[in-house]
Amino acid sequence: MLGLRFVAKDAAMTLSTPAATSANTPSDALPATPDYDAWPVEVAIHNVSHTPRQVEVRWEDGRVSQYHSIWLRENAADDSTVNPATRERILDLSRLGAWPTVSEARLDDAGALEIVFAPEQRRLRFHPGWLRAHDYTHLAELDAPLPPATLWKGSERDAPTTLDARDWLATDDDPLAPDACLESALEAVIGEGLVRLRNLPTEPGSLDAIARRIGPPRATNFGTLFDVRAKPDPDSNAYTSIALPPHVDLPTREYQPGLQLLHCLENDTVGGEAVMMDGFAVAEALRERHPEHFATLTRVRWCYANTARTTDHVWYAPMIKLDDDGNFDEVRIADFLRGPLMAPFEDVEPAYAALMALQRLLREPEFALRFTYTPGDMVIFDNRRLLHARDAFDVGQGGRRWLQGCYLERDEARSRLRMLRRAHRQQRVDALGQG
């Protein structure tokens, strides 16, 4: 039985003797995994050897994997390690009394790794498909869990990656059901930062159901769904007909929204062309051309402020944020939402010099991708990476331009894509007769 479809009664573990097996499954069945995922056994274990603190697994394709005893003990699937109802870890390693070591290791009749751990003298079994997928001695060879970021310039493409989404809401909501359109959309958003869907319904409010195919929308002071159209007494430049410069939304928040969805309900105006650009590509160009300005914008914390009539959101952060590996994590670029710079005296002039170098790059046509919204179109983009803008449009000739928007978190897209990939793995498990 695989972890994918476990319920508590299936995963109950019994330890009638000190060296009891890890589950009440037959000895010729594959053991549980410490998660709910599906892990096909496409390469079997050939043989096993061990020292007290390491287990070496040789696979039938020649790969050799090594696992530390403490890592194996913490990632077992028995009910002393995980709660069988939730698959969440309950083991406290510090309560074992001593460092967990391996006193026995062998390949059992089902093809699983079977280990007896000291000092507990507890016999535990490990699913070979799960072990292969989590082989940390070969990280570079493992399948990438998510698409890597691919930087792009508008001059390199005629349009965003575009998908026909007319069946978007007709698809089963089962999280384990394959969905080619949704999967392609999420791969584009995670990898490129942007996707355009076409032929969606145009009823006001339908965006909520469209968004929930990925995950729950995030509410802000603009509401859960917000209308982007010119209106009297606006509380944002977006709610006017003026041109908007390249920006991200809500950099004024400690954690700015990860994804933005804009759904076109009406558009028969003159002008108002959408503009998108890859903020990571702009930042990379700044690093190549002006490394000193790039370094400044990764270090100096700017003030971002939305001091409206009824709310007062303020946050301080660099314009360009890198992760621990030096890769791009987010940009916070929105000139109309910058408050007064509050930085050390000696940083003020370098900060403004770096800002102006960035602003000049944003005006270079090669970065901008321009397109027009048609009713039924929707764009999903990474709001912590993509900069969006628009040309001014004319409301004096009777045209109307109405977009509805909402925000999601990056986590929702990542989780949903992982579930779709889990569905593919389950299909392989079923095809191999391992379910």
Automatic annotation (TrEMBL):
Q: Which GO terms describe its molecular function?
A: 2-oxoglutarate-dependent dioxygenase activity; metal ion binding
Task: Give start and end of each Gamma-butyrobetaine hydroxylase-like N-terminal domain.
Answer: 49-122
Alphabetical GO biological process terms: carnitine biosynthetic process
Question: Is Metal-binding there in the keyword field?
Answer: yes
Among Gene3D superfamilies, the record links this protein to: 3.30.2020.30, Clavaminate synthase-like
PANTHER family xref list: GAMMA-BUTYROBETAINE HYDROXYLASE-RELATED, OXIDOREDUCTASE AIM17-RELATED
Protein's UniProt name: Gamma-butyrobetaine dioxygenase
